[in-house]
Amino acid sequence: MISKSYDLVVVGGGPAGLAAAVEGYSNGAKSVLILERDRELGGILNQCIHNGFGLHHFKEELTGPEYAQRFIEMLKDTKVEVKLDTMVLEITQGKQIHCVNTKDGYMIIQAKAIVLAMGCRERTRGAIGIPGDRPAGIFTAGTAQRYVNMEGYMVGKRVVILGSGDIGLIMARRMTLEGAKVLACVELMPYSNGLNRNIVQCLKDYNIPLYLAHTITDIQGSGRVEKVVVSKVDENKKPIPGTEITFDCDTILLSVGLIPENELSKSAGIALDSKTKGPVVYENMETSVDGIFACGNVVHVHDLVDFVTAESQKAGRSAGKYIAGSQPQCSSFIEVKQGSCVNYTVPQKIRVRNIEKTAELFFRVNNVYKDVVIKVRDDEKEIAKFKREHMAPGEMEKIVLPKAFLENVKGALTVAVEKEEA
Predict the structure, then answer these.
(1) What pLDDT was estimated at residue 93?
(2) Do 315 and 335 belong to one domain?
(3) What is the rounded CA–CA span in Å between residue 15 and residue 9?
(4) Closest Cα to residue 146, out of 10, 44, 285?
(5) CA Rg, the chain, in Å?
(6) Given Cys at both, which of 180, 187, 194, 240 links 166, Cβ 3.0 to 4.6 Å?
(7) Among 327, 347, 364, which residue terminates a domain?
(8) Which residues contact 154 (CB under 8 A, 6 or more apart)?
(9) Residue 337: predicted pLDDT
(10) Are strands 62-63 and 81-83 parallel, antiparallel or unpaired?
């Protein structure tokens, strides 16, 4: 039994969901509903109390909660409905959303279009298989961030951080400011996976050592973490005997990667990309299921929330056009493939007829490169090339292709990174 029907239902009330809902409402969706499992809107931004948000989108420096509040204020000027503390259980291919909360009970909501904006989750100790004892004091960096910034709990006094993702780097600074001693940040790869500005502002400014090409090989502790053993790794990421360093610590924070939250995407029968672990999307952020769109970290993990906002606004606009019936029907598309040195590309498919002027392509490289050229080719010729002085896996890349470049593409598009020719 259908509880209620809406033009647009947005799953997730974080930065992606908020931007998509506002944009969808502004582009023809008369009835819009946001479903959020937490007790308040804002998502992960609520625990990100450091500044550095909004420089691209709002042209000013904001904290995470301030950035989220800007969009929450925008919602007040609309008729967008919000259901908080609501868990979405399943989404069907017929665009029915099964969800539950304590106020309304079990609901089946029918939507004309859906935007998936569930964000991502952190990899845990179990996901990466760290050996050793199983004591208390091991947290993901995001969990520790919530405890410290929102719940008011101090998670430890002597800390070792595994992984140099942005959350881990930011928590190195945060724990130091709260009085803890951060002994080391340990990274398996020979390069950092965080933004360069975070390495400078969060590690170097506080004299926190960064051990590249190292990993944790043992955790020791009875009841609580007491020691952690760190070893250097070879080119195959195998620990090198005799390189062990032992730290006396009571806390380990894990910043070992983020995974798009895609269980609902699977239940809806949406095709997933094996590289991003998120939905395969077209140029307008539509998934493989007609009328279901996706945006933000549920598609691929972003560096900056400003980029999440831009992508989510595109998804909201596209959903509005879909509802209004103004989106051209087009079955032909260009497939986008990864060439040398490229980990993934988003979107994975481009329908040229749906592009107004330009198509944006986002991707990440698989290592640190200097003085290189991004080359875009079809099956017969080179379409475009872009020079880059520096590229790193921790920084998402964007290239813009004019529609005219894509109208005569033969076969698939391949994005590759090559050394610049002398």
Answers:
(1) 87
(2) no
(3) 15
(4) 44
(5) 22
(6) 194
(7) 327
(8) 147, 148, 178, 179, 180
(9) 95
(10) unpaired
- In whole angstroms, what is the distance from residue 188 CA to residue 239 CA? 10
Report the C-alpha gap between 187 and 352 in whole angstroms: 41
pLDDT tens readout for residues 263-320:
999 999 999 999 999 999 999 999 999 999 999 999 999 989 999 999 999 999 999 9
296 and 341 within one domain: no
- Report the predicted TM-score, pTM, of the whole model to 2 decimal places: 0.94
CA distance 12 to 21: 10
Residues 420 and 422: their CA atoms lie apart, in Å, by 6
Q: What percent of the chain has pLDDT over 70?
A: 99
Q: What pLDDT score was predicted for residue 28?
A: 86
Backbone φ and ψ of 127, nearest 5°: -70, -25
Residue 100 CA to residue 111 CA, distance in Å, equals 16
* Strand 369-377, strand 413-419: pairing: antiparallel
Block residue for tokens 């990864």:
338
Assess whether 229 and 208 both reside in one domain.
yes
> What CATH number is attached to the domain comprising 199?
3.50.50.60
Phi and psi based region of residue 294 (left: phi greater than 0; alpha: psi -120 to 50; beta: remaining): beta
* Single-letter amino acid, residue 47: Q
Q: Which domain holds residue 162?
A: 124-256
Structure tokens at 191: 């390069």
What is the mean predicted confidence (pLDDT) over 81-102?
Answer: 96
**Torsion from C-alpha of 362, 364, 370, 372, nearest 10 degrees:** -50
